[in-house]
Amino acid sequence: MIVAEKKPIEEIIDQVKDFQKLLIAGCNECVTVCEAGGKKEVGILASALRMYFMNEGKKVEIDEVTLERQCDHEYLEEIRDRIDKYDAVLSLACGVGVQFMAEKYFSTPVFPGVNTCFMGAAEERGVWSERCQACGQCILGETAGICPISRCAKRLLNGPCGGSTKGKCEISKDLDCAWQLILDRLKELDRLDDYEKIMPIKDWSTERAGGPRKVVREDVRL
Amino acid sequence: MRLSYPGNIRIVRVPCTGKVDIIHILRALEKGADGVYVVGCLEGECRFSNGNLRARKRIEQAQHILDAIGIGGERAQMYNLSSADGPRFAEYAVEMTDKIKEMGPNPLKKAKEKMAA
User: Fold this and answer.
1) A:91-130 residues touching chain B, CB 8 A cutoff
2) Per-residue pLDDT at B115 exceeds 90
3) Do A55 and B69 touch (CB under 8 A)?
4) Do A54 and B114 touch (CB under 8 A)?
5) Does residue B69 belong to the interface with chain A, where contact is any CB pair within 8 Å?
6) ipTM of the complex in this document
7) Phi, psi of B35, deg, nearest 5
8) Mapping DSSP to helix (H, G, I), strand (E, B) and coil, where does residue B20 land?
9) With contact defined as beta carbons under 8 Å apart, do B50 and B32 qualify?
10) Residue A94: pLDDT above 80?
11) CB pairs under 8 A between A and B
């Protein structure tokens, strides 16, 4: 899922303090699961902002909505009939949702309520960590299901480097060396011979370095 | 026991303090309560294992929000006691009431009056 973190309320207040009619829009997908921008967080933020503005003596109308997704036309369309009522939208979706909202409702200011962090997994309750960098050319088949692009600090394709000590990365003693994990799992799978194969230079043009990306699937287009 | 405690407290019963969420604390204050406190079982003695610990964390988050928006985090508090400890319940009620009296009424009440005028 896409992992996001709530922005500090002070920062949010600073963004929306000049508006009188505000819509706080949550998203029912990833940000709900990582407890940053779902219905619950929308309710808490709306209540906090209402109290803040009231305490400041400002009359600000705040409405709440949580859409199934903010990265799809059909769900964003659900608010078309009332979007003009608002001076601004505070979207608690990931960066994708915020941008799609801004594209769709061109004349309504949209502000982000969360910081979008990475694509990751919930290791345990309250702990999320990165697992994918969307490089566009998945090599997990060769690396025992452990991604050296997202989990190795140097994104090494033929690791580990000299900074790997006792299974940990040199940048932090809390960070596992991805290549140690790969080696351990290859051993477990009885595939250590694969480790001897030198991986060729990766084509980074499919990664973000090649500019903004797009997937076009003619087979599913209407 | 026939213990007396301040009559200005409205008790909201929940099955476990783990049921209490941040929004419940905020809504109570938004609606004009001067303070909100959660009374849970003793830590380590939750029937549902960690409901009271969850409640404490939520109270802490609510306090942070209330401080940030100028209402005052002290208006939300967490207390723990054994369900058989009536005297302590009364003691906490007095303590919380004194604390809130010291802080004064919910600032939103004044703000609402001003806006209505």
Assistant:
1) none
2) no
3) yes
4) no
5) yes
6) 0.94
7) -160, 160
8) coil
9) no
10) yes
11) 48
- Report CB contact under 8 Å: B108, A13: no
CA distance A43 to chain B (A): 7
Q: Do A57 and B115 touch (CB under 8 A)?
A: yes
pLDDT at B1: 77
Which of chain B's residues have a Cβ under 8 Å away from the Cβ of A49?
69
What does the pLDDT read at residue B2? 87
Does B9 reside within a domain?
Answer: no
Q: Does A14 touch chain B (CB under 8 A)?
A: no
What is the number of structural domains in chain B? 1
In degrees, rounded to 5, the angle at the alpha carbon of residue A54 between the alpha carbons of residues B69 and A11 is 35
Q: How far apart are CA B87 and CA B1, in angstroms?
A: 8
In a domain, B111, yes or no: yes
**Residue A62, CB-side half-sphere exposure with 13 Å CA sphere:** 24
Mind telling me how many Å the CA of B31 is from chain A's nearest CA? 9
Domains with residue ranges and CATH for chain A: 2-118 (3.40.50.2300), 133-206 (no CATH)
Q: Tell me the pLDDT of chain A averaged across its residues.
A: 96
* Angle value at C-alpha A26, between A22 and A31, nearest 5 degrees: 145
3-state secondary structure B49-67: CCHHHHHHHHHHHHHHHHH
What is d(CA A154, CA A137) in angstroms, rounded to the nearest whole number?
Answer: 17
